[in-house]
Specification:
By secondary structure, this protein is of the alpha+beta class. It has two domains: about 30-80; about 90-170 and about 210-295, 2-Layer Sandwich (Muramoyl-pentapeptide Carboxypeptidase, domain 2). It has eight helices and nine strands. The strands form three sheets. The chain has a four-stranded antiparallel beta sheet. It has a three-stranded antiparallel beta sheet with strand order 2-3-4, with no helix packed on it. Helix 3 (about 170-185) crosses helix 4 (about 195-200). The longest helix has about 30 residues, at about 50-80. The radius of gyration is 27 Å and the shape is elongated.
């Protein structure tokens, strides 16, 4: 079996997975920025009505500005609801993302989380994920799967572990690069290019057949063990994830005994989002996504 390295530059363990936009800063309260009339030096012999009218105008303007500030603050709070206190930045990837409002995405229906991607069901080259949430370390995931991913990572860390995402969304070009690199490594022992590609496909998906390209898969390793081999299953992080991932809508996508059905070798680091209901059924029955969809 080949061993894949997932080593990357070390970085301080973040509290969250995402980069958050800084909250709006106000130099001073809106009311204090209003210009107030200078006090009169004359004795107040005139009727108080003009003064009362002016005061009413000032209070109205101040209330209007404070209302706008409250609306902005409320919008930030709503954006933070899924992210634990700060608004989440949605990543726009040129050529790979279609923002909301420009039409329906290819997988925008209710079953988007059950999109089957494998050798028999490849993605079209023009496939687009509707929108991403940008994660730390240059990673990203379909924003619809992000809240559950964050909850899973937080829960794992709350138990004293250090899960680290080392791979997430990949462009078509990136998948081509990874596959070709693996093919070249296999050519030294293969009898032909075709045989090398067949060997490579067991460990690196052909372009269009990787769940990473759908934005629904993440490779998670233990920070203390960053090799993508079967030894990963013995780490504390993987033991925790295998036991709890379904609670957050994720499944261990490529179990060791399902390679004949998935077409992919055992990967105890590859987790796929399918939604909480489907994940619970798949992990409980010990089946793979292909079997679940066939039964459904």
């Amino acid at each position: 079996m080949s061993i894949h390295s997932c080593i990357f530059h070390d970085f301080p363990l973040p509290d969250r997975e995402y980069y958050a936009a800084a909250p709006m800063q106000w130099d001073e309260p809106a009311v204090s920025r209003l210009r107030r009339p200078a006090p009169s030096r004359r004795k107040p012999r005139r009727s108080p009505l003009p003064l009362l009218a002016l005061l009413g105008l000032v209070l109205f303007a101040g209330g209007f500005l404070l209302g706008r500030a409250g609306a902005v603050s409320g919008g930030e709070a709503a954006g933070a609801a899924a992210g634990g206190g700060e608004p989440v930045r949605i990543l726009a990837v040129p050529g790979a993302v279609r923002s909301e409002g420009e039409g329906n995405a290819p997988n925008s229906g209710e079953d988007w989380a059950l999109l089957l991607v494998n050798g028999d069901h490849p993605l079209p080259k023009d496939f687009q994920v509707p929108a991403f949430t940008q994660l730390v370390n240059g990673h990203s995931i379909d924003k619809r799967a992000y809240p559950d991913l964050q909850r899973m990572m937080d829960a794992c860390r709350a138990d004293g572990l250090q899960p680290t995402i080392c791979s997430s969304y990949r462009t078509w070009e990136k998948q081509e690069e990874l596959f070709e690199r693996k093919v070249q490594a296999c050519l030294s022992t293969a009898a032909s290019r075709q045989e090398a590609e067949e060997q490579a496909a067991l460990w690196v998906a052909r372009p269009g057949t990787s769940e990473h390209q759908a934005g629904l898969a993440v490779d998670i390793v233990d920070k203390s063990y960053q090799l993508l081999d079967e030894g990963q299953e013995d780490t504390a992080v993987q033991k925790w994830l295998m036991e709890h991932c379904a609670e957050y809508g994720f499944i261990l996508r490529y179990p060791t005994e399902k390679s004949a059905l998935t077409g992919v070798g055992y990967e105890p680091w590859h987790y796929r989002y399918v939604g909480v209901e489907a994940a619970g059924e798949i992990m409980r029955l010990g089946i793979c996504l292909e079997e679940y969809l066939e039964e459904g």
